[in-house]
Amino acid sequence: MSNIHEFLLRKNIVITLHRYGIEALGAMAQGLFCSLLIGTIMSTLGKQLDIGILVTVGKFASSMSGPAMAIAIGFALRSPPMVLFSLVVVGASANGLGGAGGPLAVLIIAIIAAEFGKVVSGETKVDILVTPAVTIFTGVSLSLLIAPPIGSAAASVGKLIMFATELQPFLMGCLVSVIVGICLTLPISSAAICAALGLTGLAGGAAVAGCCAQMVGFAVISFKENGYGGLISQGIGTSMLQMGNIVRNPRIWIAPILTSAITGPLATCVFSLNMNGPAVSSGMGTCGLVGQLGVYSGWISDIAAGSKEAITSFDWLGLVMISFILPALICPLIHLCVRKIGWVQDGDLKLSR
Questions:
Q1: Which residue has the higher pLDDT, 34 or 319?
Q2: DSSP 312-332
Q3: Whole-angstrom Cα distance, residue 11 to residue 118?
Q4: pLDDT per residue over 154-202, tens digit each?
Q5: Which residue among 36, 201, 274, 316 sits deepest, i.e. has the most Cβ atoms within 10 Å of its Cβ?
Q6: Is residue 269 a contact partner of residue 322, using CB atoms and an 8 Å limit?
Q7: Residue 139 to residues 88, 174, 212, 257, 258: CA-CA distances in angstroms?
Q8: Residue 114, CB half-sphere, CA atoms under 13 Å: how many?
Q9: All structural domains of the chain with their residue ranges
Q10: Across the chain, what does the average pLDDT equal?
Q11: Distance of CA 242 to the CA centre of its chain
Q12: What is the value of pTM for the model shown?
């Protein structure tokens, strides 16, 4: 057993939840952002501004989401170059065969293929043949075997959540908003989770609401301690910056979580906020305004498909209220109550420099 442990350490194979569930998952979301998400944004802008080159570039970027995710995962797993480059093929096969649940298939299969590739990397004199052959064969074989069922299972879960949200918009709007918002602030990727489940529609709108409640909420209630720098870094960056403070005093999380529990049902029941752009946008919130751009691109797609007549002023009102105004108003009010109870003190929300 000690020999196996030493071998795994030498190969930098760390079989832990943190390595696979946080580092690899987070990297996958970055891969999605640098391909599908940015491609969708460019295509949408190109169509609206009648710039053909943007549309073309966007389509190419979106088509490479599988390889981009796999390479990002391999990078997070500290894969050697030959393994990393071979994951291009693995990502393409897993994403293509995984269908609507392709991102989840890529996550699972790319991790296994990368670790198998790392096992044999540098162990033979013909490493240039063995390493890519093992990595690609493992990945593509698994893609053929398990990507379709993984994709179907993930898509079914996503559809179940979306169906339940349509049936029970208040309850599910609250649950989806709170859960995805919490995932956004935790050191895991809410964007990757939404992408893996294909979370769009009304449930996607609730997810956007939850993420915005966390980001805008934390940005506003910590303005006294962090100023404009903190407002920007959390408001259009990430609320994950508060994770250290949450560990020290979990009660600072009360106001953002309760805010998401309020704005989620408002998004589903009052504004009928649907996020029909890329599913990854559902878990991005106000990060680079990706959530809002995703909602907008969904509107455009719905109009093109004939399922939506036009973008109304009520649509814009709902997006602005849910994304910015309501979190900026509700979260400070709840936080004020928490402070009066004495659960939060000055400096508890101060970001480390």
A1: 319
A2: -HHHHHHHHIIIIIHHHHHHH
A3: 6
A4: 888 888 899 899 999 999 999 999 999 998 888 777 887 888 888 999 9
A5: 36
A6: no
A7: 10, 38, 36, 39, 42
A8: 32
A9: 2-155, 168-341
A10: 90
A11: 18
A12: 0.77
